[in-house]
Design goal:
Layout lengths: L1 H28 L3 H15 L8 E6 L1 H7 L6 H13 L4 E5 L6 H7 L4 E5 L13 E2 L19 E5 L10 E4 L1 E4 L2 E4 L1 H9 L8 E3 L2 E4 L2 E4 L5 E4 L7 E3 H12 L11 E6 L18 H6 L2 H5 L9 H17 L5 H26 L5 H18 L3
Parallel strand pairs: 1-13, 1-14, 2-3, 2-14, 3-5, 4-9
Antiparallel strand pairs: 6-12, 7-8, 9-10, 10-11
Helix pairs in contact: 1-10, 1-12, 2-11, 4-5, 4-7, 10-12, 11-12
């Protein structure tokens, strides 16, 4: 029996590593998304902010509005109409993806409502990027152009659609412009939802911080999330009709307390469909699906390769420990291991924003227990 135990150690480690890698692959493919989404919600509820941020509604500048305007893209008048309607409807803040021309007309229409704008990373705004506080990371994306002055009325960031087609998605939150931190449109939206003043938000180490809230970011300036099934979307035509009805007192404001973002969705915008998506969506729609995770504090950073190595080692220790136990002892060891894992997962999520995937972790530890029980049974 001792010879069997000695020679079984190498295959046992290989089996545990194989199980861990298979579970990791399925995690990346989105197989365990329903379970992991629930687990992230539990972690956030026990470690994050208790008050939710306002909801977000995406307004698509649709083909009908484009043809009525007689132009393929949003013009200054369209943006001003959007800002005026958002202000009248009681929106918290308004964002524009792809703002062009002189923004003075839009700012006048917006009144006191904060406005933010997003641009393509390779098309810097004429007014310059709006810098945040903090020190940029060495691996963050570099932006062209110059950093502008911080403004209380209009802030400028870059638009980046989420990365990945299955499993957890990743959104770039911050980039660098020389030695300054530049927020993305999503980060500006997060700050505007908290009614932040210019200069209050900052990037400190692996966190975006503002007041009592924070968002974890990885070494490349991105954060991971599980996307919402569908974004809250209106067309520009529907949006203006809703504003007109509200002004006539024919209905209640459907966007009171919301953050609204205007994005182009004309015929020249390609609709994409990933293997995991049930329907095609524009890049802004995919972008808007990140908001529920930001709103509820459910964004996270994934661990590196070291975590699978640590799981394999933990499973191996459990396998050796169960050799002298019966099934009751195996169940007791499994319960204890799960309890320790949950405590560690809570602590790591609270302190570093790192998600230790539940199915990957529990599956590897359970495999170690079962393999140890069958290999070393007497």
């Amino acid at each position: 029996m001792k010879k069997v135990a000695v020679f079984a150690h190498a295959p046992l480690i290989a089996l545990l590593l194989l199980v861990s890698l298979l579970l990791q692959r399925e995690f990346a493919r989105g197989t365990f998304d329903p379970v992991e989404r629930t687990f992230v919600g539990w972690l956030a509820a026990n470690t994050g902010a208790k008050n939710l941020l306002p909801p977000l509604t995406l307004v698509l500048y649709d083909e009908e509005a484009s043809s009525l305007a007689g132009a393929p893209r949003m013009g200054a008048l369209d943006v001003a109409l959007f800002a005026r309607a958002a202000s009248r409807l009681g929106a918290v803040a308004a964002g524009i993806e792809g703002l062009t021309g002189d923004p003075s007309r839009m700012l006048e229409a917006a009144g006191r409502m904060p406005v933010f704008a997003g641009y393509a990373p390779d098309a810097p705004p004429s007014m310059g990027w709006t810098p945040w506080g903090g020190v940029p990371g060495p691996h963050w994306m570099e932006l062209r152009g110059l950093a502008g002055r911080a403004s209380t009325r209009l802030t400028h960031g870059f638009f980046a659609a989420p990365e990945g087609g299955t499993g957890p998605r990743r959104a770039v939150m911050v980039a660098r412009n020389s030695d300054r931190v530049v927020p993305s449109l999503l980060a500006l939206c997060w700050a505007a939802a908290q009614r932040a003043r210019s200069g209050e938000a900052s990037a400190e180490g692996r966190w975006l911080r503002l007041a009592e809230r924070s968002v974890p970011i990885d070494a490349d300036g991105g954060t991971s999330f599980f996307p919402a099934a569908k974004a809250s979307v209106m067309t520009m035509s529907e949006f203006l009709v809703a504003a007109e009805k509200y002004e006539r007192r024919e209905s209640r404001s459907p966007l009171l307390g919301h953050v609204v973002v205007l994005a182009r969705a004309t015929a020249d915008i390609t609709r994409v469909k990933s293997p995991a998506e049930s329907e095609a969506a524009t890049p802004p729609e995919l972008w808007a699906r990140a908001w529920p995770s930001l709103r509820q504090g459910r964004c996270f950073v994934l661990p590196g390769w070291w975590y699978q190595a640590a799981l394999t080692a933990a499973g191996f220790c459990l396998a050796l420990g169960t050799g002298r136990r019966g099934w009751r002892g195996c169940a007791a060891a499994g319960t204890a291991a799960l309890f320790v894992y949950l405590l560690v997962a809570l602590g790591v999520f609270a302190s570093a924003g790192v998600l230790l995937p539940f199915v990957l972790s529990a599956g590897t530890l359970a495999s170690g227990l079962l393999l140890g029980r069958f290999i070393f049974r007497t």
